[in-house]
Amino acid sequence: MIPDKAEEGNPFYQQKDSKSEESQLDLAGWAGELRRKIATSEEQTAVLRSRAASLRTRADVMLEMAQQADAETKALRGLLQQVETTEVSIKSRSRALPRELARAENLASRIRAHTKIILKAAGKPLGRTEILAQLIEDGISVPGRSPAQRVGKILWAAEEFEYLGKGYWITGEPIADHLIPSKRYRAPNRRK
Fold first, then answer.
1. What angle in degrees, to the nearest 10, is found between the helix axes of 99-122 and 147-157?
2. Is the pLDDT of residue 160 over 60?
3. Are 112 and 155 in contact (CB under 8 A)?
4. How many angstroms from the chain centroid is the CA of residue 128?
5. Which of 21, 73, 80, 135 fits a disulfide with 140 by CB distance 3.0 to 4.6 angstroms?
6. DSSP string, 36-96
7. Ramachandran area for residue 127 (φ above 0: left; ψ -120 to 50: alpha; else beta)
8. How far apart are CA 78 and CA 75, in angstroms?
9. What is the pTM of this model?
């Protein structure tokens, strides 16, 4: 139903009367209300930004922890793979050692053991040819095209010996300073 008079039936219809003219817009009140809302909004923004910063910090720490865990996992996988391959190689070796390999290990261990005795008796570092001569005197023959090189390689690969200047010596054994071989000074050639 449509009212006869639009002014009476419509509550949104503004009538000009003495009351509406007297009440002017309260702009100062609105400005104060807007200022309060702006201040509240700025406070909320500051709180949210500080929370976001703390969450970013936590996220960075968690990402770093995740990267460390990934690195540990990768290292553990590598270690597991090494253990598995070592286990397989030990099983394959234990089944049947080739005779030549067994002889070579036996020869190398004998050379290392006799070299310790030779070096302790000499009291100074010896070269591979001197050690080879002593080994031959003790009855240990070193087969091969160049036995001195073979003795040198066996001693060089062993952790029990170290190479000092011009000779091999037992690792960790003290040696007198005057016995350590030093490089000689060699005068330059003079032009004639």
1. 80
2. yes
3. yes
4. 39
5. 135
6. HHHHHHHHHHHHHHHHHHHHHHHHHHHHHHHHHHHHHHHHHHHHHHHHHHHHHHHHHHHH-
7. beta
8. 5
9. 0.42
The tokens for 34 are 């807007």
Contact call for residues 167 and 127 (beta carbons, < 8 A): yes
Q: Helices in 96-182 by DSSP H: which ranges?
A: 99-122, 128-137, 147-157
Task: Give me the torsion for CA of 77, 82, 83, 89, rounded to 10°.
Answer: 150
User: Tokens 């703390």 — which residue?
Assistant: 54
pLDDT digits (tens, 9 = 90+) for 91-116: 665 555 566 556 556 888 899 989 99
Measure the N-to-C terminal CA separation of the chain; round to a whole number of Å. 135
Q: How many CA atoms lie within 13 Å of 167's alpha carbon, on the beta-carbon side?
A: 21
Quick one: tokens of 148? 């001195």
Q: Which residue has the higher pLDDT, 39 or 90?
A: 39
3-state secondary structure of 126: strand
Q: 3-state SS of 161-191?
A: EEEECCEEEECCCCCCHHHCCCCCCCCCCCC
